[in-house]
Amino acid sequence: MKLATLFSVGIAFALGAVGAATASELTPEKIAAATKAIDGAAIVSNDKSTKNWPSYGLNYAESRFSKLQQINTGNAPQLGLAWSYDLKSTRGVEATPVVIDGVMYVTASWSVVHALDARTGKAIWTYDPKVPRGYAYKGCCDVVNRGVAVWKGKVFVATYDGRLVALDAASGEKVWEVDTIENREMAYTITGAPRVYKGKVVIGNGGAEYGVRGYLTAYDAETGTQAWRWYSVPGDPSKPHEDASMARAALTWDPKGEYWKAGGGGTMWDAMAYDEETGIMYVGTGNGSPWNRDLRSPGGGDNLYLSSLVALNAETGEYVCHYQEVPGDNWDYTATQHIILADLVIDGKLRKTMLHAPKSGFFYVVDRTDCGFISAEPFVKTTWAKAYDANGRPIEDPRARDPKVKFEVTPSPYGAHNWHPMSYSPQTGLVYIPAQGVPLLLEQDSPEAWSFNANLPGRPHSNLGWNLGWLVSATPPGERPFGTLIAWDPVKQKEVWRQQYVAPWNGGTLATAGNLVFQGSADGRFIAYDATTGATIWQTPVGSGVVAAPSTYEVDGQQFVSVLAGWGGVYGITQRHTDRVGPGTVYTFKVGGEAKMPSFVNADAGKLVKGVAYNKDDYAAGAALYIANCVFCHGVPAVNNGGNVPNLGYAEKTTIEQLEQILLSDALAEAGMPSFKGRLDAAEIKKISAFIQGTADAVAGAK
Fold first, then answer.
1. Is 165 helix (H, G, I), strand (E, B) or coil?
2. Region 10-25: what's the mean pLDDT?
3. According to the model, what pLDDT value does residue 632 have?
4. What is the secondary structure of 606-621 as a DSSP string?
5. Of 95, 172, 286, 685, whose CB neighbour count within 10 A is largest?
């Protein structure tokens, strides 16, 4: 269906649902006028009332604190469904709804954009950028997208395959498109939401697991012309450095590791914030490529600007300052998690700060005027470092870097807090962190065994381009998985309260002036807590695990709260914690809402595969091949029923018997699985089948 037709159909639906009043407000002309008014001044002005949710983190500070209080601790128990909308998505859904004068913009997996009537949930238009499904394997963490930016009548979406697209906000028609990827031979992806600062659309990318060089790019919002680009790590030292910041960074890398061949990493795939008073933007940088510093920089070094908070001039992209949270990152401790800007009174002095709770497990308070270190304290258990010294450097446990010692580094690469947005309430003075623990025991690979872009059985996804420099240990981890919501005092650097969950990978948070904190859970609930005490005020089932963060807005004097449910992400691909699954869905609630919940589809419990003939002598080799090709999508066979990708231990017998035909063809290309033709041969696939059936037999015997 053409976009213009879809728009007309959406308006017709809206007319039938809510009458002429809504129709008069949602004409293309009205939508165009409302969205054309969105610029920097409008975003700043909206922060006085927060009736709209005009950008990814609500405001430039990315506080995710709404001043709306019509929904509060007193009436939240009366929340009911106002409407729901089927995103027709079976993969991860991570977007925060952006809402402007009654129009909602959300994204689903594969970077599909939906424009909805925020009162009724009726479709206005849908834009599908047609991401090639075969591109899925080039990303580590599901085919997700975290949302859009809106600026002067345009909606901007960055696609999984690395394009930046400007759409007409009223019709959904494409205005311009640019390819943001400078080297298509490398496995770059984009999953993050763009931001617009001073008329420039800013977007980063992902791919450090595969071997890329991270960079951040700004494009003119009107034309799509590139305005500036800043690299987070140095390039080939035989070539001129792009700027003084890169020349300075090169001094902290050992060229003997030829880090530029693996790109160096440092991808900036999510966190950004902006101080409109100074014109300075802040971005969190990613992990090294490969993860193992001994391989990418054998002589050591801090490896600037990995795992850092970096300040840039939003107009020019010029480097201003930085604070490196994890010098010489060795454990995939990205600093790409949510950044919040806040003015805090610390030791009797008002400080302009950045608040950050990244993968490393420490909560950092950093002065945003000069990137100076203020404090860092662990908000979960950390074994890689005990504390930070007065200069802002971690006091590491030497065992964490010693390749001769089998040491369980905590947090694991899944992080103590991953991308799921946190929120900050100036009303309570607390930050609400979706904290977690996902144990994973790794062992450092040796320089003699590892090489860049090589098919190395036993190395996770090495045959699909991963370059970690780590092995998954055969020894089970000693830690246990957990998920928790932590209310954290950033001034006292202390936990105030917490709510424990049954599992990790719970959704982002929203704080409101109604003294509420909203969060979705991995076990399929949407919950409101008392922001001061942590008491549960209200909850409702939503059928699928929630990983996205909610937003709230006001239309026609009514406050709504919306959240997207749709299980996925790097953890959700292989694990789940609900008995039911459903399509990606937008749920919107209001006090007194009486809409009927959509039906939830029961997940097939599945039976362990049995009866596939195999040679037991192939089992060990099959295990190494499975790790190099399958484990980060399909999980360990038979240990559970899988996440949003099937666990092969519960596959049909005929599926495993026909694995060669499936893997060496494009049979499942539309589902996002690539062909392994040229990567695996028939003998290797037979060994993988032996591992799958052998593991299923072992699990069945244990049961």
1. strand
2. 36
3. 87
4. ----------GGGHHH
5. 286
pLDDT confidence of residue 13: 31
Using CB atoms within 10 A of its CB, is residue 399 exposed (0-12), middle (13-18) or buried (19+)?
A: middle
Q: Is the pLDDT of residue 201 over 90?
A: yes
pLDDT of residue 474: 76
Distance CA 683, CA 116 (A): 51
pLDDT at 672: 83
Lowest mean per-residue pLDDT among 116-120, 264-268, 601-605, 681-685: 601-605
126-143 burial by CB neighbour count: b if 16+ within 10 A, else e?
bbebebebebbbbbbbbb
Q: What does the angle CA 220 – CA 224 – CA 228 come to, to the nearest 5 degrees?
A: 55
311 vs 640, which has greater pLDDT?
311
Q: Which strand (E) or helix (H) includes residue 363?
A: strand 362-367
- Is residue 235 a contact partner of residue 266, using CB atoms and an 8 Å limit? no
What would the mean pLDDT of 507-512 be, rounded to a whole number?
Answer: 98
Output the CA torsion sign for 315, 317, 322, 325. Answer: positive
**pLDDT, tens digit (0-9, with 9 covering 90-100), for 125-177:** 999 999 999 999 999 999 999 999 999 999 999 999 999 999 999 999 999 99
Asked about 332 being catalytic, the answer comes back as yes
**HSE (side-chain half, CA atoms, 13 Å) at 30:** 14
Q: What is the 3-state secondary structure (H, E, C) of 91-142?
A: CCCCCCCEEECCEEEEECHHHCEEEEECCCCCEEEEECCCCCHHHHHHCCCC
Provide the H-helix boundaries in 287-328.
293-296
- Identify whether the C-beta of residue 492 lies closer than 8 Å to the C-beta of residue 422: no
State the Cα–Cα distance between residues 531 and 343, nearest whole angstrom. 20
337 vs 457 pLDDT, higher one: 337
What is the spatial distance between Cα 571 and Cα 142, in angstroms, rounded to a whole number?
9
Do residues 44 and 274 lie in contact, with contact meaning Cβ atoms separated by under 8 Å?
Answer: no
Spatial distance between the Cα atoms of 153 and 194, rounded to a whole number of angstroms: 15
Q: Are 491 and 350 spatial neighbours (Cβ–Cβ below 8 Å)?
A: no
**The one catalytic residue among 168, 275, 329, 332:** 332
CA distance 431 to 531: 10
